[in-house]
TrEMBL record:
Gene: glgP
EC number: 2.4.1.1
The name this protein goes by in its record: Alpha-1,4 glucan phosphorylase
Family: Belongs to the glycogen phosphorylase family.
EC category name: transferase
Organism of this sequence: Claveliimonas bilis
Pfam families found in the cross-reference section: Phosphorylase
């Protein structure tokens, strides 16, 4: 697509102009960071036109809008992605080349906006990309954290966290929009008064603290359609004494307190993934961005509509997990107290606009706020939740007379806690899981009582990923090859066309080309590893990759124990045939998750020993990639041979990394968990390596008190040897205590939990056998190439475009917008 607005000479002039006006410099004098800024401003200039055109189109068409409410948006870098979606990447690259500027180097100057932890935040980012590309009106609503996900350093094998000051140099793509600020109130008390003139009881919040929420807007560019949506993230600012109630004016202490509240609220993203910690500041963050977002949505709606009852025709609030669930009570508050509706009317509107997505069944992730904390911080919202609960329990008792057990199990307020998931299910009209298996587990296990009472709410939306970032941008060689082979670029917006590659599955020439691209991408990753880790890896070895957050259920421990086992095998049988393998890890552990950090240390210790053992002739290498994040992920997926998806079955809701590997031609080595099940369904069992307990088996063991890892330890000498190496000093310079906790977690935990809760030893043999099959398959070059190619060819289902279209068809019912330019 030719893009006149990126005409070479015009664009070059624009960049020169920006360098001059921003920095009083010439191109030659500018630093790489300054060039990044200048180029970004030149790109933004063009985006803004489309952004305005899109907003004008919205005014004309008045489409229904989805507000995607999320505590996290793991956007990754914007420059390259925006260029791709503006269909100007190659033009701009050429223009910059002529100026002696390397676009890739410029892109590397951009910090990764890491306003998210992992899967849930990255999914939100892929969804925004697809919403804009499909032409739907959408806002992402979130928080502009001053510090995003921490930067990870590895020092002496240990993870060290340092702050991510991503805004240090300024963010060229954002717009501060002070004029749309909203006030958000915390604490105080509620005075109830009766208004005779209207016959209404009024609830007045007094003695509260408040902050101003200031929106920053970032453009979300659709692919090749001039559609630009908005990611609106909120910053906090103290309300100046000028704006304080006249009563409070001049109250110095209050002014200082509000200043502090504003500063702390948006200070940092909590780096927990799947673990609820019950921190008051976290609840403040939640209410802060939700209140501001809902207020803004209502203001916007009312500007062009006069009947608030019709809100559900124009607005959807999609809650990304339970973190934004306070939205339902905040919406009720506004409808009751500000719009002065009756309860039933307000409830009718709320339950037609709010919908909830569940992203995990891990019990420790469930948000349950202590009532005393919650009611102190959000007194009016709490009253409303009490009333929602009261009315809901009447229904439960009607449906299950005399069954107080049901009432206890389903209540929103119970045992001194507010159960956010129950609130989300009761108030939302839709509850969805993120992969078929996950949704079935929700219906039949975790949320069984709710499913029984309101089955119509439950539905599945299998996750997806955007091919624009994870193929076009991350793997341009393969992207161009795909276009050539299937004879069209249309896969960029219709991933089902990838099936056109299937006809090359037995074409030796095509297979060789495909593997040659893989090889080049492996060379690129090997260079990255040399530069960042100082480790030499052989691009001809099998690149076996596990990159994701560090969590026990994801079982990086199983992976590294297996590496230890292989190392033992090679040492014991030096004559044994063994295809060289590079095991690549990348993972951040939540700062307070001690056991996860021990696993990182173990991986690095094993790497130290194995990589420096000359006697094994480089057959085995272990690499831990520091600071795994979106930007290096793109390089890693492109270079992977094997995709490790080895979670304990039933625990991984979906996984999305699995899909990114598949897209880039890496077969899955995994359990029947999350979306792996659907991946195998698409690509065929023969093109994946599946092993281990099924989710039913895992759940069965769990319901019967676990299993006995000691039996396995006693009967399998290879496993015993590996487990013993955790405490005999092999990987710890003779220190017998360094990995004692990991050893205990497998055999005899000291914290009262079950031994080997994640079935690592139980699945070990099956995993080792599956790994053996990987090696056999890889040795047969043509067979492997065919498997790899078929993975790319069969990935069509896993585009987030498909996922979003399903959300639109079944939940949101949005209108398509065509931006006229
Ligand atoms: C949960 C919690 C719990 C409370 C405290 C802070 C916090 C922060 C983040 C999370 C998110 C955990 C849920 C999550 O990321 N789930 C992942 O969602 C992906 C997208 O649906 C899915 O592919 C992964 O399987 C799932 O683990």
């Amino acid at each position: 697509m030719y893009n006149p607005r990126f005409e070479k000479e015009t664009f070059k002039k624009e960049v020169k102009h920006n360098v001059k006006t921003l920095y009083r410099k010439t191109i030659e004098e500018a630093t790489p960071q300054q060039l990044f800024q200048a180029v970004s401003y030149a790109v933004k200039e063009v985006i803004i036109d489309d952004w305005i055109a899109t907003q004008n189109q919205f005014k004309k068409d008045d489409p229904k809008i989805v507000y995607y409410m999320s505590m996290e948006f793991l956007m990754g870098r914007a420059l390259g992605n925006n260029l791709i979606n503006m269909t100007a990447y190659k033009e701009v690259k050429a223009a910059l080349d002529e100026m002696g500027i390397d676009l890739n180097a410029i892109e590397d100057e951009e910090p990764d906006p890491a306003l998210g932890n992992g899967g849930l935040g990255r999914l939100a980012a892929c969804f925004l990309d697809s919403l804009a590309t499909l032409g739907y009106a959408a806002y992402g609503c979130g928080i502009r954290y001053r510090y995003g996900m921490f930067k990870q350093k590895i020092e002496n094998g240990y993870q060290v966290e340092t702050p991510d000051n991503w805004l240090k140099e300024g963010n060229p793509f954002e717009l501060r929009r002070e004029e749309y600020a909203k006030e958000v109130r915390f604490g105080g008390n509620i005075r109830v008064e009766y208004d005779d003139s209207t016959n209404r009881t009024k609830f007045v919040q007094e003695n509260y603290e408040s902050v101003l929420a200031i929106p920053y807007d970032m453009p979300i560019v659709g692919y090749g359609n001039h559609h630009v949506n908005t990611l609106r993230i909120w910053d906090a600012k103290a309300i100046t004494d000028f704006q304080l109630d006249s009563f409070d004016r001049g109250d110095y202490h209050k002014a200082v307190e509000q200043e502090n509240l504003a500063k702390t609220i948006v200070e940092v993203l909590y780096p927990n993934d799947n673990h609820y910690a019950g921190k008051e500041l976290r609840l403040k963050q939640q209410y802060f961005f939700i209140s501001a977002s809902i207020q803004a949505a209502i203001t916007k709606y009312k500007k062009t509509h006069d009947d608030i009852h019709k809100l559900p025709e124009k607005v959807i609030f999609q809650m990304n997990d339970t973190h934004p669930t306070v939205a339902v009570a905040e919406l009720m508050r506004i409808l009751l107290d500000e719009e002065e509706l009756g309860w039933n009317e307000a409830w009718d509107i709320t339950t037609k606009t709010c919908a909830y997505t569940n992203h995990t069944i891990m019990a420790e992730a469930l948000e349950k706020w202590p009532i005393d904390l919650f009611s102190r911080l959000l007194p009016r919202v709490y009253q409303i939740i009490q009333e929602i609960d009261r009315r809901f329990l009447i229904q439960v008792r009607e449906r299950y007379p005399g069954n107080e057990e049901k009432v206890r199990k389903m209540a929103i307020l119970y045992n001194g806690q507010v159960r956010m998931a129950h609130l989300a299910i009761v108030a939302g009209f839709s509850v969805n899981g993120v992969a078929r298996l996950h949704t079935e587990i929700l219906k039949n296990q975790e949320l069984r009582d709710f499913y029984e009472m309101m089955p119509q709410k439950f539905n599945n939306k299998t996750n997806g990923i955007t091919q624009r970032r994870f193929l076009m941008h991350g793997n341009p060689l393969l992207a161009d090859w795909v276009t050539e082979k299937i004879g069209t670029k249309d896969w960029i917006t219709d991933l089902s066309l990838m099936s056109g590659l299937k006809k090359y599955a037995d074409d030796s020439k095509a297979l060789a080309e495909f593997m040659d691209i893989k090889y080049k991408n492996k060379v690129r990753l090997a260079e990255y590893i040399r530069k960042h880790n100082g480790i030499e890896v052989d691009p001809r070895s099998i690149f076996d990759v596990q990159v994701k957050r560090l969590h026990e259920y994801k079982r990086q421990l199983l992976n590294i124990l297996h590496v230890m086992y292989l190392y033992n095998q090679i040492k014991e049988h030096p004559e044994m045939s063994f295809f060289p393998r590079t095991f690549i890890f990348g993972a951040k552990a939540s700062a307070g998750y001690i056991r996860a950090k021990e696993i990182i240390k173990l991986i690095n210790s094993v790497a130290d020993i194995v990589n420096n053992d000359r006697s094994i002739n480089g057959k085995l290498k272990v690499v831990f990639i520091e600071d795994y994040r979106v930007s290096n992920a793109e390089i890693i997926f492109a270079a992977a041979d094997v995709s490790e998806q080895i979670s304990t079955a039933s625990k991984e809701a979906s996984g999305t990394g699995n899909m990114k590997f598949m897209l880039n031609g890496a077969p899955t080595l995994g359990t029947m968990d999350g979306a792996n099940v659907e991946i195998v369904e698409e690509v065929g069992m023969e093109n994946a390596f599946i092993f281990g307990l099924s989710s039913e088996e895992v759940i069965n063991y769990e319901n019967n008190g676990g299993y006995h890892p000691q039996d396995i330890y006693n009967s399998d000498p290879d496993i015993r040897k590996v487990v013993d190496q955790l405490i005999n000093g092999t990987y710890s310079n003779g220190d017998h205590e360094m990995y004692r906790d990991l050893y205990n977690s497998l055999l005899c935990p000291k914290d009262g939990s079950k031994a080997d809760m994640y079935f690592i030893l139980k699945d070990f043999r099956a995993y080792a056998e599956a790994q053996k099959k990987v090696e056999e398959a890889y040795k047969d070059k043509e067979r492997w190439a065919k498997m790899a190619l078929l993975n790319t060819a069969c990935c069509g289902k896993f585009t987030s475009d498909r996922t979003i279209q399903e959300y639109v068809d079944d939940i949101w019912h949005l209108d398509k917008v065509t931006v006229e330019i």
